[in-house]
Amino acid sequence: MSEPRPATEAGSETRCPRQLPVTTRRLAIPVIVFVLAACSATAPASPQPLSTSAPAAATATSDPAPTAPSATGAAASAPAATPAATPVPAPGMTLPGVEWELRDVWMENPDGRAPSLEGALFIGSGFLAWGPTALGSAIVASSNGLAGWSQVGTDGQFDGMRIIGMAWAHAGIVALGADRAGIVRVWRSTDGVDWEAGPGRTGIGGTVGPLISTAGGTYLAAGTAKGGCDVAIWTSFDGFAWSPSEPLAGAHGACTAGAAAVVPAISLVTEGRAGLVAFGSVTGVGNATWTSADRIHWTFHPQPSIGGHVVGLTASSGGYVGVGNTGNGGAAAWTSPDGATWIPAPDQPSLHGTTMMEVHTLADGTLVAVGTDAAGVFTTWTSADGSTWTRGPAALYDGGWLPSGRVARLAVATDGGAATNQQETLIAAGGGSRIWVSPPITTGLQSVTLTIDVAGASFAGVGRCHGANAATNDIPAGGVDVLGRWVEPGDTGQSSPWATDGGGARRIDLTVGPDGRVLKFTYEDPVGRAFASGAANAAGVLLTAAPGSGPSTGSITFSGVAMMDPAIGAPDLGSRAISGSLTWTCGS
């Protein structure tokens, strides 16, 4: 959806807050989403007015988190829609942020209200997620331990609206959005199921970008002021009544200067050990930050030396970390002790040919960034200090062929290590049907190292091994399914005629029995697909496993496997046949 026009106050309209009845519509969504929040079961004290004197440097954990919402009343009659506890990752899985599992999202809603998820929030008892629909926006709540999601609110409550962000603090869960006229709207909920619409006059007259809750228990939104010539920050104690901050230095009247004027905006806000840091851009300066130690008074810091585009921001053990891209085909990161002075991370191979879209700090201080490679494929990094980054392995997937489409945007979130979970769980929403979770939660998934030799050329591949479980009846007990992908020189990124991840990569899918015998072999490239089984095949087709091969490691040779004609779904005997070899090692 396009960005809303600068919001204005809604004339003389006065709408009193009212409690909306709940109606839940079940969505068939095996889904998960990224959430930028940590949680605690400790009940908070009442919010306190902000002091006019500068307090000690704020930290993101200086106040207890809000009490976790629990379903009551109407929500109790619809338990499927109540946010559910985060599942415990399978034993033996890797640390959070290192290995990820892609879980394809399938949503069915005949009314056109199935959202393309683009944001999420952890609320203590589970996750909420939101995104645009064909009619406006929708909010869904996790159920069945992240195996499904259900629509919340009343039918059509968010039609004609664009939900921009959510935050959870002492007054409840607050959602900000805009109607088709660009006027800011607000909703509030105590349980994530029933949503109360706020008054027509919110006090926000502008375009809203980020929304966060502060360590002081208040809500903070930022963006562009009404008229488009100033950046703006608004605060609220209850989520319904908002007040602008003092005028912010650095952007006043800036959008009127010159033919190449840029509308000033604040696009990112976070809170850390030195207080609040807002990141944005202004005409004539470019990148800029604003810092506040008391959540009231703000200091402007021009940042012309920050090259590229900063699109993610987090507080870290050393201060603050921003991520994004150089603007020249590579990911980039910056660190700061105070939000005012920023140091770029050194150039390093792990950042080449990629872009970072979001960053989050784990409870142990580890930094996790997510983004894409040049083909638009989901990519992750971890770092101890924000300067040196290690790229993670390819995401695991428990299906057959990867879902289609490039990843255009990502949002990240965490449960902060909930009481129901031995490990911190990260969720990433990539729009459309792409959802990732770390650590992986599907039993039997492992990474795999592949070496593929086709037509005399050798390539390294990445992918996953999937052991047998209750959901994989085509894999025999003790066997494994190996799915790998690789790119060859000259590949243009063109998608195969078959449903794949749209990256133009080549793929092999191999099912191996407990005795090392090959039960199924599938090869795919941008032209078509070839298939063979361990049973009877066409004349000249051979699949031979090397002695000692087994489910966890082994190798095979293949020859004479004909490519399928996608128009008829059968081998085209007049086309080429493929030959080569494959070596795999699971759990590497």
Characterization of the model:
- This protein is mostly beta strands and 588 residues long.
- The chain folds into 2 domains: 399 residues, Methylamine Dehydrogenase, Chain H, CATH 2.130.10.10; 142 residues, no CATH class.
- The protein has no helices and 41 strands.
- The strands form 9 sheets. It has a 9-stranded antiparallel beta sheet, with no helix packed on it. It has a 5-stranded antiparallel beta sheet with strand order 1-6-5-4-3, with no helix packed on it.
- Strand 24 and strand 25 form a beta hairpin.
- The radius of gyration is 25 Å and the shape is elongated.
- The chain starts with 24 loop residues before the first strand and ends with a strand.
- The N terminus is likely disordered.
